[in-house]
UniProtKB/TrEMBL annotation:
Protein's recorded name: Enoyl-CoA delta isomerase 1, mitochondrial
Species this protein is from: Dreissena polymorpha (Zebra mussel)
Pathway in which the depicted protein is active: Lipid metabolism; fatty acid beta-oxidation
GO terms of biological process kind: fatty acid beta-oxidation
Annotated family: Belongs to the enoyl-CoA hydratase/isomerase family.
Keywords: Acetylation, Fatty acid metabolism, Isomerase, Lipid metabolism, Mitochondrion, Transit peptide
């Protein structure tokens, strides 16, 4: 993984924090700044709760924190599975932090995007069995995060989707391919072009979500489903996953710099900045009402 200077500063700060999952063999919980981690040493399953109020939006620091945790879990031989959920029972994740993209410093903007690419590569390519327990709304980057897992369970009454086109943004090819790989080409064409935010039931009907379970039962269901995934020998499951996901990951790895350049060029356009400003005003005004 390639880290920028600012991210490295953050890594140093993070390393001094107490969470050290390696070699844990009991049930333990730990917290970093924006993540709550419960590690069951017996089953080898880590439950990671996104915990960045108000909406678990991903800024550079939060993405860096997630990347560091992923690296630790990947390197912890006792860890076999990851359940990703939210500590906020209404919002899984509001997606990328829009403030990162408004009046940005180009260097930070590039670093932000590289760190998002890093998060996607580590979650999508994880050796762990990964289950998203989607216990709240999950637009855009939140949906991408769920799509990167092996299995998705969602609570009713929420919405999910890659809604970028609704904001005048073109979803990058690796967002779209993540959707295609889960729902198939036709469904992905419709929901990505239209930028659909789907209800839990609609998402279930197109295969974006595998299972619908009430919020209060979602973690129990995730643990039960995890048991099924962990019945398969790790090595066979991991290599099969890699075989299936490698072409998509390789495309991003080959075009990583080009993808960053495209993103920075697009976001810094006057017209995009203007639209972003209007969108932020709408969000803030809605919050005030
Ligand atoms: C060829 C291709 C080339 C280049 C590629 C180009 C472009 C790709 C670029 C970008 C891809 C982006 C993907 C994204 O993820 S963009 C982010 C999309 N997310 C959203 O639009 C979500 C917006 N938020 C909501 O819909 C709602 O807030 C909610 C459903 C998440 C929660 O609703 P609530 O009613 O519970 O809460 P609110 O009152 O709306 O919000 C509370 C509080 O939070 C602030 N906020 C909400 N979302 C975000 C966010 N994503 N980032 C930052 N801040 C957010 C909101 O403004 C309120 O703040 P205040 O309390 O007013 O301070």
């Amino acid at each position: 993984m390639i880290w920028g200077r600012r991210a490295l500063q953050h890594v140093k700060r993070f390393k001094r924090l107490p969470f050290q999952p390696e070699g844990l063999h009991r049930c333990m919980s730990a917290a970093t700044q924006n993540l709550v981690v419960e590690m069951d040493g017996k089953s080898g399953v880590a439950v990671v709760k996104l915990n960045k109020p108000p909406v678990n939006s991903f800024n550079l620091e939060f993405l860096t924190e997630i990347n560091i945790l992923m690296e630790k879990l990947e390197n912890d031989k006792s860890c076999r599975g990851l359940i990703l959920t939210s500590n906020n029972n209404k919002i899984f994740s509001g997606g990328l932090d829009i403030m990162e993209m408004y009046n940005p410093q180009p260097d930070r903007l590039a670093e932000f995007w590289r760190t998002l690419q890093g998060m996607w590569l580590s979650l999508y390519g994880s050796r762990l069995a990964t289950i998203a327990a989607i216990n709240g709304h999950s637009p855009a980057g939140g949906c991408l995060t769920a799509l990167s897992c092996d299995y998705r369970i969602m609570a009713p009454g929420f919405t999910i989707g890659l809604n970028e086109t609704q904001l005048g943004i073109i979803p990058p090819f690796w967002f779209v391919e993540s959707m295609i790989n889960v729902t198939g080409q036709r469904q992905a064409e419709v929901c990505c072009q239209k930028g659909l935010m789907m209800t839990t039931e609609q998402a279930h009907s197109i295969g974006l979500v595998d299972d619908v379970v009430p919020g209060e039962a979602i973690l129990e269901r995730a643990h039960n489903e995890m048991k099924n995934w962990l019945k398969v020998p790790d090595f066979a499951r991991q290599l099969t996953k890699r075989q299936i996901r490698k072409p998509t990951m390789d495309r991003l790895i080959a075009k990583r710099d080009e993808d960053i350049q495209n993103f920075v060029q697009f976001i810094t356009k006057d017209s995009v900045q203007k639209a972003m400003g209007v969108y932020i005003d709408q969000l803030k005004n809605k919050a005030k009402k």
